[in-house]
Design brief:
The structure holds 2 protein chains of 2 kinds.
Chain A: H1 2-9, H2 11-16, H3 26-34, E1 45-47, H4 53-56, H5 59-78, H6 87-97, H7 102-129, H8 138-160, H9 165-178, H10 185-193, H11 200-231
Helix pairs in contact in A: 5-7, 6-7, 7-8, 8-9, 8-11
Chain B: H1 31-36, E1 42-44, H2 45-70, H3 95-101, H4 106-127, H5 141-161, H6 165-183, H7 189-195, H8 199-220
Helix pairs in contact in B: 3-4, 3-8, 5-6, 6-7, 6-8
Classes of the chains: A mainly alpha, B mainly alpha.
């Protein structure tokens, strides 16, 4: 504790963290929020009612944390993954038998993804039944719906990547639905698969969608979603 | 001395002949109400909210770590385009959609229905004119019953024609639940609860029930050739 106190008095510490220690007054507490890049998405004060667990069940927060977890585990998994046939499948086996904690990493990524689909859906239900989509929050509701769709698409594109029987046929079933879209259906399916059936290029396309394009949209929309919560008057 | 008429408020339904002058005199707010009005109880974000976020994040990580340690993610053998499993199933969250594909023409089930669901979800906040969300039976219950029942009846007939029993049965159950506050006059906590649900609330409840039931059927009750099998 003494070392920490001394550390907090040093010039280096004080040049990094603007908030003076110890944090005692309400001014200090508000400066913690003010002076932080990550925390200042919060207001300095919040309604006590809105931060109770029974009010929101923290479903939005849990969804976001799951997304963070998915990004961390996903980046680590990218280090061991080649989007090619049959390398993709062999990489799964490597994760299981060769890479330290490889199974743990993949399990974490998989279960977080499934759980995120559930929590995002439950979050939508909570917002609906509490009437939290009403004006002025109606546009944030729409962003939320788009986020739900992107969550499903992210989960779905990730489904192909292990390239086992399960993923191959699940994606076959899914992309067969696409071809029923009137007029452009066949073309869209060709664009998605990079061919008439699932192959090398499908894997690359789904990999790029899963690791670059969709997460990018997700991050941007999450930022907009959070920002709108503040602008529309806080949690409800 | 001015004439007496000048002090009288003219009242006429024709707004051009006599502009109505209305003065709304609210009843004096009772003192008790003033006292009970919920005070906006504000607390500092740091540490009150921040500590909750940190604990929440830690619980998420711990729970997922435990799940990941005990349950392995499924991995089957290498994909083989020549060997089609029977049945080939989509990821669980799309199994409701796949279940629909086996009952309706593909354009309807695969394109039209998801599109309608997304559009319906998006327009909810713009269409929900019933801002206070009064219960379904609050106003004009006889007319509500007639319109509501006939819409549900037509829907059920269509579902019956397509043999879509996996939609028909939950719809019927939700309908019975929705109508019960009208039929059962005896009140208890449960009836009061469902009586306060608005039309939008009922539609959402119906949508969620059907989705969940379709996903459960698709996951556990469908075997080779998408035939009905029992999971036990």
């Amino acid at each position: 504790m003494k070392i920490l106190n001394w550390l907090a008095q040093t010039k280096i510490w004080q040049s990094i963290f603007r908030t003076k220690l110890p944090i005692s007054t309400n001014l200090d507490k508000s400066l913690v929020i003010f002076n932080s890049l990550t925390l200042h998405i919060h207001p300095v004060k919040v309604r006590l009612r809105a931060i109770k667990f029974s009010y929101t069940f923290y479903l939005g927060m849990i969804s976001f944390f799951l997304f963070v977890l998915l990004i961390v585990t996903g980046i680590l998994l990218m280090l061991y993954y080649q989007p090619a046939i049959p390398h993709a499948y062999n990489n799964m086996k490597d994760l299981e038998f060769v890479v330290s904690n490889g199974s743990y990493l993949r399990n974490m990524h998989r279960w977080s993804a499934h759980l995120m689909v559930i929590t995002v859906f439950l979050h939508m239900l909570r917002v609906f039944y509490k009437g939290a989509y009403k004006p002025p929050r109606e546009f944030n509701w729409i962003i939320g719906i788009v986020l739900l769709i992107i969550t499903l698409l992210l989960s779905y594109t990730g489904y192909l990547l292990p390239y086992d029987q399960l993923s191959y046929w699940a994606v076959t079933v899914g992309t067969n639905i696409v071809q029923y879209i009137p007029i452009a259906g066949e073309k869209i399916r060709f664009l998605l698969l990079g061919g008439n059936e699932i192959g090398e290029y499908t894997l690359v396309r789904f990999y790029v969608l899963h690791c670059v394009i969709l997460p990018l949209f997700m991050v941007l929309l999450i930022a907009l979603h959070f920002w709108r919560i503040r602008k529309d008057g806080g949690l409800s | 001395m001015t004439k007496k008429e000048e002090f009288e408020i003219e009242i006429s339904s024709d707004s051009k002949a006599a502009i109505q002058r209305l003065a709304i005199v609210p009843k004096k707010t009772p003192v008790k109400y003033e006292q009970e009005k919920p005070e906006e109880n504000l607390v500092m974000t740091f540490p009150n909210l921040i500590i909750r976020e940190i604990i929440c994040f830690q619980i998420v990580v711990i729970v997922l770590s435990i799940i990941s340690l005990f349950f392995n993610a499924p991995l089957e053998e290498l994909a083989n385009p020549q060997n089609t499993p029977n049945p080939a199933k989509a990821p669980w969250y799309f199994l409701g959609l796949q279940e629909l594909l086996h009952t309706f023409p593909p354009v309807v089930a695969g394109v039209l229905m998801p599109l309608l669901v997304v559009i319906a979800l998006i327009i909810i906040p713009y269409f929900d004119i019933n801002i206070k969300r009064a219960g379904l039976w609050n106003k004009n219950p006889e007319k509500t019953l007639l319109v509501f029942s006939s819409v549900v009846f037509v829907f059920l007939i269509i579902m019956f024609l397509f043999d879509a029993f996996s939609i028909l049965v939950p719809t019927l159950l939700i309908y019975i639940l929705a109508v019960s506050p009208y039929l059962i006059k005896k009140r208890n906590a449960f009836i009061n609860n469902i009586a306060s649900l608005s039309l939008a609330g009922w539609i959402m409840t119906w949508f969620v029930s059907v989705t969940v039931i379709l996903i459960i059927i698709g996951t556990y009750f469908r075997g080779p050739g998408w035939s009905w099998v029992w999971p036990w």
